[in-house]
């Protein structure tokens, strides 16, 4: 690629992707020295394009070639849609430097419009045409289908073979007029889609990441860029691996997802399942007056911890069982938990139990009843998993500063261990207290993460395998509340490393975050159940249920269990090579 061509492409991507309004573009585009200097100094990594983002290599490759740059704050906004005028300007700078701009004019493109020359050049070269009435609709978003056929037509690709689209399952949704061009683009290896690698997604507006991928692939086809190495990407299966004939009120996966522990919907029994075969390994039924309130299976799948309460005596007990035989290894009494006089959020609990990642400890959390007129106290106690001996207690009886949130009477919404067991977190009213193990193998206060501004509800919290703490909350008031995901580096960040606004409908009642940090499951009465990709906003629906009640991810993030009023479906994630890199 010539130096002039590189600067030209860098200029237009810098203008389109680096500025918030096209009204600034004509002023800068006439100052080539300024634009060139900006392109030369732009970083190749953008703060909102992490290394594991599906289009990272495409975007970084174009940035390295000085073809694109981001916003002034170092971001790229990869998921924003591209207009037809912006796309025409990209084509002009990438492929049409010497193309004349004397094509027939469009009725809705004024002579002084910022992209007039680019639009007419693209029309002259056969990249883009208009709509009936000689309109161009410059501010309409360009669809993926039209972006692909524009490149195929303008670059004069040979028509693709009939089987060029055999790998895609949404071929029937491609417009008839677009089918030859999309076939040609697919055969030229331009088609890139994520997370749905087996779909064209023809009518979806092309995002900045999509356009970067298409253009990079076109440069590869022209010999102007190096092919990218194959990269692995994820896809969730649309059909369940297995369906368990059970109704569940709460679920817990082993680390690798091979075993699933469930509490029956009436809470009078719990079950351990082999999810590969769908077989019931063991079922434990409680006495008439006993109900199970919380359950956790150990990471190795060998033990199960439960919290149960007796309806007649109010006695609450923590028990640990052998998963294979149902033998009770030990049991200890807990303080009496508070009985709420208000409805809990769907799937909410006043008691919780969890295993440390090495399965050596069990932590039990409950909201303890107090005399009338006093706020309830939160209690956290760590027990030896083998013996039931108390290892450490973090509760209101201890007057230490680190217990500020625990002692203030606010119900703990969630507890979580980091994958290496060195950190522990508890969330209440959006405020999260984080502890770190010290040299004596005890937890000591590390930091408190504040609730986001406008906090109105807690959704979920998980330590990810990549070392971050992800916290999902609601901000704003119903019906205008929005869901956000704050990603924290727990050792260094005073503010979230990243904040994403996630899919949320005002009737949604359940959210679960995956431990790999990539996905979240959300369910509501109107929008149904959705499995969304955090980074791309892409949606994969193992099923769209309106009666799902509980969901849980395995510790490695590769399995998802979804329970409804009839059964439990187990879905699995597979890894495939990107279509344009490995196929």
Automatic annotation (TrEMBL):
Pfam families: SLH. InterPro entries: Cell_Envelope_Struct_Comp (IPR051465), SLH_dom (IPR001119), WD40/YVTN_repeat-like_dom_sf (IPR015943). Signal peptide: none annotated. Residues 42-105, 106-165, 166-229 form the SLH domain. It comes from the Bacteria. This is SLH domain-containing protein. The lineage of its organism: Bacteria, Bacillati, Cyanobacteriota, Cyanophyceae, Leptolyngbyales.
């Amino acid at each position: 690629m010539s130096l002039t061509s590189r600067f030209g492409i860098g200029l237009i991507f810098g203008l389109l992707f680096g500025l918030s309004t096209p009204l600034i573009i004509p002023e800068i585009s006439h100052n080539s020295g300024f634009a060139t200097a900006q392109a030369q100094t732009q970083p190749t990594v953008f703060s909102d394009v992490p290394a594991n983002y599906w289009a990272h290599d495409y975007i970084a490759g174009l940035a390295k070639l000085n073809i694109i740059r981001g916003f002034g704050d170092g971001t790229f906004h990869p998921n924003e849609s591209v207009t037809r005028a912006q796309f025409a300007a990209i084509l002009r700078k990438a492929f049409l430097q010497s193309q004349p701009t004397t094509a027939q004019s469009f009725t809705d493109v004024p002579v002084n419009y910022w992209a007039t020359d680019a639009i007419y050049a693209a029309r002259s070269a056969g990249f883009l045409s208009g709509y009936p009435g000689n309109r161009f609709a410059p501010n309409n978003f360009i669809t993926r289908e039209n972006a692909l056929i524009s490149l195929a037509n303008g670059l004069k690709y040979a028509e693709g073979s009939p089987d060029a689209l055999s790998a895609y399952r949404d071929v029937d949704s491609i417009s008839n007029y677009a089918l030859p061009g999309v076939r040609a683009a697919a055969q030229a290896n331009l088609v890139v889609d994520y997370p749905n690698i087996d779909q064209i997604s023809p009518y979806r507006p092309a995002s900045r990441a999509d356009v970067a991928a298409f253009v990079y692939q076109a440069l590869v086809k022209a010999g102007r860029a190096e092919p990218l190495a194959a990269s692995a990407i994820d896809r969730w299966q649309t059909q369940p691996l297995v369906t368990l004939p059970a109704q569940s009120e709460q679920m817990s996966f082993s680390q690798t997802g091979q075993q699933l522990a469930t509490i029956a919907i009436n809470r009078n029994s719990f079950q351990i399942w082999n999810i590969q075969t769908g077989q019931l390994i063991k079922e434990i039924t409680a006495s008439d007056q006993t109900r199970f309130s919380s359950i956790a299976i150990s990471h190795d799948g060998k033990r199960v911890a439960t919290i149960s309460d007796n309806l007649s005596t109010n006695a609450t007990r923590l028990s640990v069982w052998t998963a294979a035989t149902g033998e009770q290894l030990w049991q200890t009494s807990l303080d009496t938990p508070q009985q709420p006089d208000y409805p809990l959020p769907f799937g909410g609990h006043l008691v919780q139990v969890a295993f440390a990642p090495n399965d050596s400890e069990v932590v039990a959390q409950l909201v303890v009843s107090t005399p009338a007129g006093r706020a309830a106290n939160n209690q956290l106690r760590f027990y030896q998993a083998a013996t039931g001996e108390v290892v450490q207690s973090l509760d209101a009886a201890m007057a230490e500063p680190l217990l500020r949130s625990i002692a203030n009477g606010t119900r703990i919404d969630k507890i979580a261990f980091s994958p290496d067991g060195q950190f522990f977190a508890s969330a209440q009213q959006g405020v999260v207290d984080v502890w770190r193990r010290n040299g004596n193998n005890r937890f000591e206060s590390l930091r408190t993460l504040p609730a986001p501004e406008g906090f109105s509800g807690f959704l979920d919290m998980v330590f990810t395998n990549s070392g971050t703490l992800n916290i999902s909350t609601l901000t704003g008031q119903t019906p205008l509340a929005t869901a956000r995901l704050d990603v924290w580096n727990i050792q260094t960040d005073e503010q979230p490393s990243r904040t994403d606004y996630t899919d949320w409908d005002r009737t949604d009642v359940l959210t679960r975050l995956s431990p790999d940090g990539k996905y979240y499951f959300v369910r509501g009465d109107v929008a149904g159940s959705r499995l969304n990709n955090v980074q791309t906003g892409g949606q994969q629906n193992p099923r769209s249920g309106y009666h799902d009640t509980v969901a849980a991810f395995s510790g490695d993030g590769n399995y998802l269990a979804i329970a409804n009023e009839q059964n439990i479906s187990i879905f699995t994630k597979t890894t495939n090579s990107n279509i344009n890199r490995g196929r």
